[in-house]
Write a structure and sequence with these properties.
Number of strands: 13
Strand content: 15-25%
Distance between the termini: 20 Å
Number of helices: 12
Largest sheet: 5 strands, mixed
Order of helices and strands: EEHHEHEHEHEHEEEHEHEHHHEEH
CATH topology of the largest domain: Peroxisomal Thiolase, Chain A, domain 1
Shape: globular
Radius of gyration: 20 Å
CATH class of the largest domain: Alpha Beta
CATH architecture of the largest domain: 3-Layer(aba) Sandwich
Structural class: alpha/beta
Strand order of the largest sheet: 1-7-6-4-5
Number of domains: 2
Low-confidence stretches: 1-9
């Protein structure tokens, strides 16, 4: 079998982001709307979470349908066709169904007939895990172009009588294209961590083999998200700050080198505490939690897309991504922004060389 990287006499060894896209449902659920569902109010929610509204998937929308829209945007930005993808990785806690994998449904929707596809589930840290996995495939020579997509339909796993959780979560999807490049840019470092949540601090207890669906689990609302917020808060801040510092050290950088931090949008108080622990100024941490709430694995790539839309990013700029989620899991990644037009020229040159060999 031919090595897919031995084209044009070079061996790419970095995974650069060359495309991105995101999708948010049109239906908005505001704090004032929630006042009609549970014993809460706008001031209470805003002061404790920073959230003012969140997006809710419409009837007929699913994780795969939202992720497909985001994926098409990312491919268009990268100027790639679906059949040029080698792999699709989908990070989600809320798959359309247990089988098939949501990534396989996205692959079919896109028409990415050459691409392998699989899901991974590390809850809100899923995008970081997907980014790390995709970068390893590219650095190891197993793929040249990978779609890392994250999507969540968390509204369908909410107990709408539990004000401690239903106020937090929203739906959405986002995607990035990772592409092999000879540039010294792209994913510079990743740090992944976990600690098995045997205490069930953040869980959906039923629906798996340990507690299959039954009239009892349905009556107990055991198919809904349950969380012990105060304990999660402390662990989230500690592990996000530590993993961020570790990722910076692995990349040989300090906080002074970072253009912006794009964190998982879990809770405004968690974000502020993490920002202070890392030592980043307010203007260098991007937050959109007020408009989206916690969108799980799709939180970071949605925020990344909005950041890139609103803020010019120069070649060589460094972005720090950091998250914490169920599992319990946490992680961080450092990106050095690539010269994307140059990556596209590399791609075209490799394609010409391949055609010349065939001809």
């Amino acid at each position: 079998m031919n090595d897919p990287f031995k084209e044009n006499g070079c061996m790419p060894h970095r995974a650069a982001v060359t495309g991105w896209g995101w999708y948010s449902p049109t239906q908005v659920l505001s704090n004032h709307d929630l006042e009609k569902l549970v014993d809460t109010n706008d001031a209470w929610i805003t002061s404790r979470t920073g959230i003012r509204e969140r997006r809710i998937a419409a009837a007929g929308e699913t994780t795969s349908s939202m992720a497909t829209i985001a994926a098409r945007q990312a491919l268009a930005e990268a100027e790639l066709q679906p059949d040029e993808l080698d792999l699709i990785i989908c990070a989600t806690t809320t798959p359309d169904q247990l089988i098939p994998a949501t990534a396989c449904l996205i692959q079919r929707n896109l028409g990415a007939h050459r691409a392998g596809a699989f899901d991974l589930n590390t809850a809100c840290t899923g995008f970081i895990y997907g980014l790390a996995t995709g970068a390893q495939f590219i650095q190891g020579g197993g793929a040249k172009r990978i779609l890392v997509v994250a999507g969540e339909t968390l509204s369908r796993f909410m107990n709408w009588e539990d004000r401690s959780t239903c106020i937090l979560f929203g739906d959405g999807a986002a995607a990035v294209v990772l592409e092999a490049t000879t540039q010294q840019s792209g994913v510079l470092s990743t740090v992944l961590g976990s600690r098995g949540d045997i205490e069930q601090m953040l869980t959906i207890e039923a629906g798996g083999c340990a507690r299959p669906a039954s009239t009892e689990t349905i009556a107990q609302k055991a198919h809904c998200v349950r969380m012990r917020g105060n304990e999660i808060f402390k662990m989230a801040v500690r592990n996000m700050a530590q993993s961020a510092q570790q990722a910076l050290a692995k990349a040989g950088l300090t906080t002074n080198d970072i253009r912006a931090v794009i964190p998982h949008q879990a809770n405004e108080r968690i974000l502020i505490a993490t920002r202070d622990a890392i030592g980043i100024s307010e203007d260098r941490m991007f937050m959109n939690i007020d408009r989206h709430g916690n969108t799980g694995a799709s939180s970071i790539p949605i925020a990344l897309g909005e950041f890139l839309q609103s803020t010019p990013v120069d070649v060589g700029d460094h972005l720090l991504l950091v998250s914490f989620g169920g599992g319990l899991t946490w992680g961080a990644a450092v990106l050095r922004w690539a010269d994307i037009p140059a990556v596209k020229l590399e791609r075209a040159a490799a394609q010409r060389a391949k055609l010349a060999l065939i001809g």
